[in-house]
């Protein structure tokens, strides 16, 4: 019996030695959890650093884009001495509204605002009336002539306005339209129409053809389907196109300088004529420029939802 027990004990010890030292099972599990915790912390730290970098870049972009306008706004409240001070200061040493009263009180300023609004509205309406059917035809009837047309529109966009400004002015004078808002609106349409066609083409491409086919099954004509179905779907894109067309006319200077004299002068030309015997009247110029920016800001805020919807329309195709 003793010999058997000894053999049994020796065999158990040998098996234990062969199996190696026993390690608690919780050790490997704990180290795995620690590694996963470290990975999560690393990912969170990376995300935080990425977000911080994005916010820094966004803040830098806002400063780069917003600082010139803020400097213009602050300059409009400076006294005439502060506007030409060397070195210049950002904030006025003395705040005053004299520049605004001088600018808005000059003869021709109110009339130039009315001319700018009329010209921009007419040019925007002409661009939309011509761009919507053109872009719809190009996207729905995919023909070779349509592709050539849209490429030609892009090429005309590359032509500098100064190359066509004098011929356009001569044509408008020959037709008896010189110094009129109609002539200037037509000239501005030549700038905004190519971009409007390209924008509307991208928006129409995002609209599924099934919607029009369903409308034609219900009894709509092609024109009825465009007006009742497609136009409401791309209303955000139309708003975006209208904003760009309006801005192209609102900020244009060269055609306004060549085609207007007194009756239809726009505000950019009037601002450029703010001169005194001592030089440019920077206070009045910046004051009128700040006031001239208000309609565009209001228009953008009113169409903000439409603009966001239009910018995201082309991202997802049905």
Uncertain stretches = 17-26
DSSP, total strands: 2
- Largest sheet properties: 2 strands, antiparallel
Mean model confidence by pLDDT: 81
What is the element string, with H for helices and E for strands? HHHHHHHHHHHHHEEHH
Which oligomerization state do the chains in this entry correspond to?
single chain
Total count of helical runs of at least 4 residues: 15
The percent range for helix content is: over 70%
Globular, elongated, flat, extended or rod-shaped: what is the shape?
flat
Reading side by side through the largest sheet, how are the strands ordered?
Answer: 1-2
Q: Report Rg.
A: 34 Å
The percent range for strand residues is: under 5%
Q: Kindly, what is the distance between the CA atoms of the first and last residues, rounded to a whole number of angstroms?
A: 87 Å
Structural class: mainly alpha
Structural commentary:
The protein is built from 15 helices and 2 strands. It has 318 residues and is mainly α. Strands 1-2 form a two-stranded antiparallel ribbon. The radius of gyration is 34 Å and the shape is flat. Mean pLDDT is 81; it is low at 17-26.
